[in-house]
Amino acid sequence: MAAEMVNALGKITISDDLIASIAGYAAVENYGIVGMNSKRAGDSIVELFGGDSVKRGVKVTMVAPDTVVIDLYVTLEYGVSLPAVAENTRSNVKYRVETMTGLSVQSINIHVENIRV
């Protein structure tokens, strides 16, 4: 379900894939996150053919016309503080999504799927 915003000049539609890409790029630029993990079977197939890999570990759920919940499935670097990385990631993803799209982020859930040395 895409986000829609209507103003005097017309309608803006923002796809879930765009929101996922923004959130994925914002997540991987944080120190400690080394990758995103796919959660859908189709993501692995897209990855084989060179698809966008940063959005593969992001699930976007619209809870209102202008509010989203974001789930991130990540791989962390061994030895980092998990709470610190999670808090920095939440802050960065929330800031990027809200400033770039104008949507409100209700919550960001971080699922640590793996740790890499």
What does this structure look like?
The strands form 2 sheets. Strands 3, 4, 5 and 6 form a 4-stranded mixed sheet that branches. A two-stranded antiparallel ribbon has the order 1-2. Helices cover 35% and strands 38% of the residues. It has helices at residues 16-28, 41-48, 82-101; strands at 3-7, 10-14, 33-36, 58-64, 67-77, 104-116. The radius of gyration is 15 Å and the shape is elongated. The chain has 117 residues and is α+β, with helices and mostly antiparallel strands. It starts with a strand and ends with a strand. Helix 1 (16-28) packs across helix 3. The longest helix has 20 residues, at 82-101. It has 3 helices and 6 strands; from the N terminus they run ββαβαββαβ.
Calculate the terminal CA-CA distance, rounded to whole Å. Answer: 37 Å
| Number of continuous helical runs | 3
Order of helices and strands: EEHEHEEHE
Helix content: 25-40%
Number of strands: 6
Radius of gyration: 15 Å
SS-derived structural category: alpha+beta
Low-confidence stretches: none
